[in-house]
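Let us work through a complete example step by step.
Step 1: write down the sequence.
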Amino acid sequence: MIIRLSSIGDVAIAVPLVKALSNQYPTVEISIVSKPFHQFMFEGIPRVHFIPFDDKKYIGFMGTFRFAFDQLWKENFTHVIDLHDVLRSKLFRKVLSIKAIKTVVFDKGRKEKKAALLDKSKLLKPLQSSFLRYKAAIETAGFQLQTEENQWIEKKEKGKSYYWDCAFFLTFHQNLSSRIDGNID
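Step 2: predict the structure and record it as tokens.
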């Protein structure tokens, strides 16, 4: 089970990794827990089961706790990969830890971000992207992923290279533009 509850951009960053996981591990069933609105991003990916967390239905601490038991407890997850690490996802992990499920939490890079803000010279050095942090969490859970080179776009600036995780965003933007323009395939 992979948890990423909100922030459409951060959920979108996880999509190529979920696709890679699905393609490279054909016997693995993948469950995604996120807001109902994000479900369309995972449609068509083989063996992905979307579990919508509606925070308007499951309100507050008790609602989150009830969702964990109503929706997640009955599942037979072998791994929990938390790509959000917030109070709600921590509660999901705590409830599922009773079942002794292997749990991995991605590193948000809080120490590096804080150090960069305190020491202005460190702002010139790019931090690890969320895409690579998510990938590291999935690999820590035991799923080594081979990603394609075309998932990154290289941008050169003043003799330095920066990689942007843009492949999915370009596709998402193109699809969104088509919907807005009325050119839906």
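Step 3: interpret the result. The first strand starts at residue 2 and ends at 3.
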